[in-house]
Automatic annotation (TrEMBL):
The lineage of its organism: Eukaryota, Metazoa, Chordata, Craniata, Vertebrata. Pfam families: Arginase. Transmembrane segments: none annotated. Belongs to the arginase family. Binds 2 manganese ions per subunit. GO terms for biological process: L-arginine catabolic process to proline via ornithine; urea cycle. PROSITE patterns: ARGINASE_1 (PS01053), ARGINASE_2 (PS51409). GO terms for molecular function: arginase activity; manganese ion binding. Its EC number is 3.5.3.1. This is Arginase.
Length: 342
């Protein structure tokens, strides 16, 4: 498989026809809907998966030559007694839902697809990344988000688990994680050196301490401004593939994009990625050939000040996913297309 660097060389030497053929040949998406909202307090984010499907995701993927299997929406058990554990809210529901999601992602990977998890809130990254790692081994994680989502159960200012998923996944933080109900199945499966953050602009002091102490690679919005998104992506992929080329897990929070474009989300933060920067990230990761699972989370059709804001948010989510599966803004065509003869 080609690295981004090799890819550019291939394209310069003019054999990109072969590349496009190769790239489309084996792309297939296994879609899991995860209508889950209990990692945060707002209603509506559980409607994300169906809103993204209703915007035509499956047909558009098929039209660009991607095989698609929709595994449907997961059903989560109701949890009636879910009192806070310390600061942490709804641990039992979040733990149970993520255990189910982990098994579903594992099954999608076993079937040979690139996993696409439609959230739901970002607490779902726990199960998605856990299941992905269980299926394929060591991962590189690209976390695109306004927030770091790396609070521990003891540092969280809100108690909402969608602000904590990374802390359960990182091996280096396990001595800081207390026992929580329905969390015992989780095995920390990611090393801090295998994570890259992009788009950060709202990081709690405790989270900043963790990121700096563990030496986690990050490109905040300041670095995106400084370097430009192309350089950020080149450095991201060089960093993750410096030693071994590992499968990449992209965990994309729609709130990474500027709320002028994607307002229908629970915790919008001004000063985010443009639509073009957001799409470029997916195009670049697709070209590495290493993208193995994608989360698209925090689309909330009940937020965003009216229909236009929701449409813009959902359409952007679809564009990001199409970029993950080979859509090029220059246009695409099927490798067996022939011009009609007069
Ligand atoms: Mn997030």
């Amino acid at each position: 498989m080609w690295s981004a660097r090799t890819l550019r060389r291939v394209m310069v030497t003019g054999s990109n026809l072969h590349l496009h053929h190769h790239r489309h040949h084996h792309l297939s998406a296994g879609i899991i809907g995860a209508p889950f909202s209990k990692g945060q307090p707002r209603d509506g984010v559980d409607r994300g998966p169906d809103a993204i499907r209703a915007a035509g995701l499956l047909l558009k993927l098929q039209q660009q030559g991607c095989a698609v299997k929709d595994y449907g929406n997961l059903e989560f058990e109701d949890v009636f007694e879910d009192a806070p554990v310390g600061r942490v809210k709804r641990a039992r529901a979040v733990g149970g839902a993520n255990q189910r999601l982990s098994e579903a992602v594992r099954a999608v990977k076993r079937d040979g697809h690139t996993s696409v998890m439609l959230g739901g809130d970002h607490s779902l990254a726990i199960g998605s990344i856990h299941g992905h790692a269980a299926a394929v081994g060591e991962l590189g994680v690209v976390w695109v988000d306004a927030h770091a989502d790396i609070n521990t159960p003891l540092t969280t200012p809100t108690g909402n688990i969608h602000g904590q998923p990374m802390s359960y996944l990182l091996r280096e933080l396990q001595s800081k994680i207390p026992v929580l109900p329905n969390f015992s199945w989780i095995k920390a499966c990611v090393s801090a050196k295998d994570v890259v953050y992009i788009g950060l602009r709202d990081v709690d002091p405790e989270e900043h301490f963790i990121l700096k102490t563990l030496g986690v690679k990050m490109f905040s919005m300041s670095q995106v401004d400084q370097l430009g998104v192309a350089k950020v992506m080149e450095e991201t992929c060089d960093y993750l593939s410096a030693k071994v080329k590992k499968p990449i897990h992209l965990s994309y929070d729609i709130d990474a994009i500027d709320p002028s474009v994607t307002p229908a989300t629970g915790t919008p933060v001004v000063g985010g990625l443009t639509y073009r920067e957001g799409v470029y990230i997916t195009e670049h990761l697709c070209q590495t050939g290493l993208l193995s699972a994608v989360d698209l989370v925090e689309v909330n059709p009940l937020r965003g000040h009216g229909e236009d804001g929701v449409t813009s948010t959902v359409d952007t989510a679809v564009a990001l996913l199409l970029g993950c599966f080979g859509r090029l803004r220059e246009g695409n065509h099927s490798s067996n297309y022939r011009l009609p003869e007069p």
